[in-house]
Amino acid sequence: MAAHLKKRVYEEFTKVVQQQQEEIATKKLRLTKPSKSAALHIDLCKATSPADALQYLLQFARKPVEAESVEGVVRILLEHYYKENDASVRLKIASLLGLLSKTSGFSPDCIMDDAINILQNERSHQVLAQLLDTLLAIGTKLPENQAIQMRLVDVACKHLTDTSHGVRNKCLQLLGNLGSLEKSVTKDTEGLAARDVQKIIGDYFSDQDPRVRTAAIKAMLQLHERGLKLHQTIYNQACKLLSDDYEQVRSAAVQLIWVVSQLYPESIVPIPSSNEEIRLVDDAFGKICHMVSDGSWVVRVQAAKLLGSMEQVSSHFLEQTLDKKLMSDLRRKRTAHERAKELYSSGEFSSGRKWGDDAPKEEVDTGAVNLIESGACGAFVHGLEDEMYEVRIAAVEALCMLAQSSPSFAEKCLDFLVDMFNDEIEEVRLQSIHTMRKISNNITLREDQLDTVLAVLEDSSRDIREALHELLCCTNVSTKEGIHLALVELLKNLTKYPTDRDSIWKCLKFLGSRHPTLVLPLVPELLSTHPFFDTAEPDMDDPAYIAVLVLIFNAAKTCPTMPALFSDHTFRHYAYLRDSLSHLVPALRLPGRKLVSSAVSPNIMPHEDPSQQFLQQSLERVYSLQHLDPQGTQELLEFTIRDLQRLGELQSELAGVADFSATYLQCQLLLIKALQEKLWNVAAPLYLKQSDLASAAAKQIMEETYKMEFMYSGVENKQVVIIHHMRLQAKALQLIVTARTTRGVDPLFGMCEKFLQEVDFFQRCFIADLPHLQDSFVDKLLDLMPRLMTSKPTEVVKILQTMLRQSTFLHLPLPEKIHKASATIIEPAGESDNPLRFTSGLVVALDVDATLEHVQDPQSTVKVQVVYPDGQAQMIHPKPADFRNPGPGRHRLITQVYLSHTAWTEPCQVEVRLLLAYNSSARIPKSPWIESGEVPPLVETSSEGTIPFSKPVKVYIMPKPARR
Amino acid sequence: MPEIRVTPLGAGQDVGRSCILVSIAGKNVMLDCGMHMGFNDDRRFPDFSYITQNGRLTDYLDCVIISHFHLDHCGALPYFSEMVGYDGPIYMTPPTQAICPILLEDYRKIAVDKKGEANFFTSQMIKDCMKKVVAVHLHQTVQVDDELEIKAYYAGHVLGAAMFQIKVGSESVVYTGDYNMTPDRHLGAAWIDRCRPNLLITESTYATTIRDSKRCRERDFLKKVHETVERGGKVLIPVFALGRAQELCILLETFWERMNLKAPIYFSTGLTEKANHYYKLFITWTNQKIRKTFVQRNMFEFKHIKAFDRAFADNPGPMVVFATPGMLHAGQSLQIFRKWAGNEKNMVIMPGYCVQGTVGHKILSGQRKLEMEGRQVLEVKMQVEYMSFSAHADAKGIMQLIGQAEPEHVLLVHGEAKKMEFLKQKIEQEFRMNCYMPANGETVTLPTSPSIPVGISLGLLKREMAQGLLPDAKKPRLLQGTLIMKDSNFRLVSSEQALKELGLAEHQLRFTCRVHLHDARKEQETVMRVYSHLKSILKDHCVQHLPDGSVTVESILIQAAAHSEDPGTKVLLVSWTYQDEELGSYLTSLLKKGLPQAPS
């Protein structure tokens, strides 16, 4: 038996059809155990009571079952099922059947007949429901098999009349998931069947059990999700369900109505009790709006969310959502300015703002007025005032989406959004600020709105303030008073919260560059210049003064008349700021100030193209020189690397590419240098000294390749191949060096094997890319692979050595967009001389605030490292909630790091830095290879590592001994 | 004919002294027991003699329900229970129970100590009265007696305000008290499930108002206060000690904190501290925000708001004072008002409704010269602002509540007649239901058709279910059984069981019918032909040919015999029981048509 199994294992290895790692583990288990199914059989036979049997089944369910033994297990389970009298055990068996049929690599069609069979004889409703669930699993596993699907649908239809809601639920679920799709239908007859499914499900919209009604709607939605076109007739049915007594029904019905409205936006539906007709999407919109004032908040959230995605709705309907007034008043337009005066004074209802204005006037044309069914009226007004903040957030989001698609609506909803800035829940405030930012292209803030917006600058929450700064960056202000107001408030903010400095400067930069003409008349006042008298020169280090200058200089960029208003010291300050805060102060064309302008010139835009060209040229130059003498190659590489690094510093747009290429060339240079060592053939004892250099080179190359792979965003597969190739070379180098320095052959065996495994792994992962690697190291290596497999380690080493020397320099294709991940720690600033004192053994919380650029998935990769003076390092995993995402490609980490140590005699510095954790095996599933079920051999590359990617910051701490 | 009768003793087409009598299925309930702010004579309390003319209150009333602690809803309670005499249970929510005596005591003090009224209820009476109170928690169903049950729903408005459902059997009435459908800074919105009562008695204070967004109101309020304070003026906000006051306090407190303002805010003394204490305690009755953040900081622990002392009113410089009572009709707010009214820098903000006859109402309607007690004339120079912070549902909110509860009829109380008229019209038009608005002392009678529950035995139900498909909601189904009425409950059981229970013997009723058939053949053959004929037609039924030469269709027996006189005619004897009447008559008519010609 064992021999047979062993043989099978080998067979499979050569056939190369296999799965995940856990399967491997179970396979080992199989060698010791006879068979899973047999064991189960024995267990079940041993079971004396249903409770026992249940226990065995539960235990059994904990372990996975391999694909080839599934069938056996299923047979045994079925056998027991027939015998079993206890419903709970049958239930468990039924659920196990479902689980087993989901096993990949197992085709469940063989158990379907049995499942349907036992279904017919089953009496217990719960077991029936579970069996239907199993059938659902089977059906979803075999999406291509039409016959089976039809049959399952038949079974489901048959059990739809069951008295238990659970069974009906499952039947509907089955119908929803398997009901045939029209697109796969070829003949008319089957088309009829497809229509039937919808009708059958539709009939259960009026089931007596709310759970079944919900399931029916969900099934309908499922049909839609699978691409089946729902019929418009459903719409009326769904509308009736909106007044259901149960919230889950209403909630699902809202979704269904939304779906139908997206399918048939333009159809015309009649308005009940009148002769008018409106578009379906408008009607649906009105109905969903009505649900925003539903009794259940779950429904309200659902409705508010869906409103946002109904973009086809007519604009006059849309605008009603912001209007609490009645239909009859719809004709009356009101701008926000008029609102305060005119609002409601004309209507029949008073606003409750003025005493006594609510004496009823004449009844307005009664027929048209209705208070509840006025549909869209005031939906957002209600939503934004809702008791639950979940609803308010949903409403704000919906408002955002609708405003993005309709500028006129954006203008109208502004007042409401501004009002939301004063919400009592911070999350809502934040969300509305973000929303406002998103729609800022469509709107211009009036002064009174700006006033309300700016009032929020005093909020004590940093998130709110920064969001507001972001908002101000991209808002349009209509008057110069507005700009002035904004500046004053921002400066107030600056004095109140000095930590907001950077954010405020940046905000003023954009404010200035967006409104040059509005800033112009303010300049004399802002700079406090006087036509006749010289005024005192302001302090250059004052953040407030810098803020003003940032505003003015950015405005001056597009307003050439402005510099004429500057006084002398302003020009001096400009030169200084241009140099020290170049990211905030733009280059200005100043009259008669050649010095300034020339210093600026190299960086202005027209130079961008040549630098791109320069980059290309220098890279090509390097790649073309394959056959120069080693000395020349090295020098050229060195020069190019230097050039690229400098280019990266100068041109921020190209920094990513330049650094990336430079790093690659650096690796190559190291490799060449290592191979250039003359003493390769010297006997081992003499070699020791040299190996230092070579092994260090190998190590460094490895590090650099990890950096290349994980620190850059936008790296494509073709680059990854090259990077891995480089790493492979480094590993080869390492192997050679080790072979040279170690005595004896034994340790080499392991290393060689490992290396060959890696080569194998490389081949598998990048098999598609191998043709591009002509003449490369790996290409040759693979040619010699059969030989290497059988050779002794010493020979392998020799072969590798020659191959490394002969291998050519691979061309690294430049990726389209590549950015280097970077991080800056803003806080702690590392300037403080006051040590952070705390009692030893207790913890102190250190606030860490850092910005991250171009980091993908920071939640899982970014770590904080703290290194204590004794070399002890501590890695902290920030919570996912500590990361904010202020913009594309940018992240902000605001977290607390807990420090602790035993007592010190005097304060000392700890280093805090950010690390980027990587996991090279994470990249592997990308290759199509794995999908076929192959198990990658466990290789060394799957180990985790970290790359430091921020400058360390020193923090002065002092753990005091505890007082006795 | 069963009916529900409603008689408002107060609050009928009026605001103030809410008191409504409801008779439902023989039970009498009094909803609220309030006083009227506008009167100082007998009219301030409801006219309980309307009830007492028939004897003692306790004999007539089954229970009293107080919706919330505002005096116009509970002010007459001690008078009612101790002076007129009522010993039955009084139901209210725990916050109301806690705060109500404080307000009553305050009211008593003003009436007795300040105005020197005699024949008013005493502190001891308040205490005794509160002893009769039974607390009802939200969504708790309380059985007043075997039949009458009440249930409380959240109503917003003020802390502890509740709507009550009064239910006897299948008949029910919902009384809203005062409620608010939009949440505010400290309370949530009213909510009721779809309980479909026979009658909804709703307040209609703002029957003709659709209020603007509360955020605008808040902003306006803050802006006005802020501007006045910056000018150096004093702001007087007359409030009732509890309710709006707390909302405005929270509003101002957070604003002060945000804007870093220094001007003092005072809250008139005494009862505030006690009341705030209760606000801190009953956190579960507040809104989402306060409920969720109270662990960090209880929002009712104010940092900027201090207790007021009478001497402070003459202090120079800006200040904000919350003073009671809210309609400027008496007490501290009126005193402060008189001091500050002369200065145009100052401002008074009326945050709520003012009953006719009060100073508040007068200044709001534009009167600039007020005649005070003792022939004094007070000139009002200060600014008068009205800011609707009253937490009553507006017209849309009332409609929304009606939509939520789906009652059969609506009755409006607690509002002005003119406005009610408008809303009544709207309700009738939109919901197509009857709407009433009785005046005080006027009785509205609603006929009801109570549904009578009948128990059905499970066996019978299952048997019926098994016979056909699922019951279809749209089609009525015929079901045979026996209705047993015993001890005022009804049961539907199968006839066998009924016979067994009643100890009766079963009588079988059988119909027989003879059908003459012209058939010359033998009896056996005729039977065979009948059998095959029926078999071919009645495919759904079980047709059997028995060995004794008869045919059965289900339980119907068919026998053939030769006619005694005419051998060419066979007589078919068809016999069926009463239960099979339908099928039996169908069969006879079928057989009467004759058999098809057999293919010979």
Keywords:
heterodimer, A: 964 residues, 6-stranded mixed β-sheet, 41 helices, 9% strand, B: alpha/beta, 18 helices, 32% helix
Instruction: Count the E strands of chain B.
Output: 30
Strand content of chain A: 5-15%
Rounded to the nearest angstrom, the distance between the terminal CA atoms of chain B is 70 Å
Total E-strand runs of chain A: 16
Number of helices of chain A: 41
Name the pair of protein chains with the most residues at their interface, and give those residue counts.
Answer: A-B, 51 and 59 residues
Distance between the termini of chain A: 72 Å
Shape of chain A: globular
Radius of gyration of chain B: 37 Å
By helix and strand content of chain A, what is the structural category?
alpha+beta
Largest sheet of chain B, in brief, is:
7 strands, mixed
Oligomerization status of the protein chains: heterodimer
Protein name (chain A): Integrator complex subunit 4
Organism (chain A): Orycteropus afer afer
Main location (chain B): cytoplasm
InterPro entries (chain B): Beta_Casp (IPR022712), INTS11-like_MBL-fold (IPR041897), IntS11_C (IPR048662), MBL (IPR050698), Metallo-B-lactamas (IPR001279), RibonucZ/Hydroxyglut_hydro (IPR036866), RMMBL (IPR011108)
Compact overview of the structure:
Chain B: It comes from Orycteropus afer afer. Chain A has 964 residues and is α+β, with helices and mostly antiparallel strands.
Summarize the helices and strands and which ones pair or pack.
The complex is a heterodimer of chains A (964) and B (600).
Chain A: H1 2-15, H2 21-32, H3 36-46, H4 50-62, H5 67-83, H6 87-101, H7 109-121, H8 125-141, H9 146-159, H10 165-178, H11 188-203, H12 210-225, H13 234-241, H14 247-263, E1 268-270, E2 277-279, H15 280-291, H16 297-307, H17 315-320, H18 336-342, H19 379-384, H20 389-405, H21 407-420, H22 426-438, E3 444-445, H23 447-455, H24 462-473, E4 476-477, H25 480-496, H26 501-514, H27 516-519, H28 523-527, H29 543-556, H30 568-580, H31 594-600, H32 608-624, H33 630-650, H34 655-676, H35 684-710, E5 712-713, H36 717-741, H37 746-765, H38 777-783, H39 785-790, H40 793-806, E6 819-820, E7 822-827, E8 836-839, E9 844-853, H41 858-861, E10 862-867, E11 873-876, E12 883-887, E13 890-899, E14 908-919, E15 944-948, E16 953-960
Parallel strand pairs in A: 3-4, 8-16
Antiparallel strand pairs in A: 1-2, 5-6, 7-9, 9-13, 10-11, 10-14, 12-13, 14-15, 14-16
Chain B: E1 3-10, E2 19-24, E3 27-31, H1 49-52, H2 57-60, E4 63-65, H3 71-74, H4 77-85, E5 90-92, H5 94-114, H6 123-131, E6 133-135, E7 141-143, E8 148-154, E9 162-168, E10 171-175, E11 199-203, H7 214-231, E12 234-238, H8 244-259, E13 265-267, H9 271-281, H10 288-293, E14 305-307, E15 319-323, H11 331-340, E16 347-350, H12 359-364, E17 369-371, E18 377-379, E19 383-386, H13 395-405, E20 409-413, H14 417-431, E21 434-436, E22 444-447, E23 454-456, H15 458-467, E24 482-486, E25 489-493, H16 495-502, E26 510-518, H17 523-537, E27 543-545, E28 551-553, E29 556-562, E30 569-577, H18 581-592
Parallel strand pairs in B: 3-4, 4-5, 5-6, 10-11, 11-20, 12-15, 12-16, 13-14, 13-15, 16-19, 20-21, 23-25
Antiparallel strand pairs in B: 1-2, 1-22, 2-3, 7-8, 8-9, 9-10, 17-18, 24-25, 26-30, 27-28, 28-29, 29-30
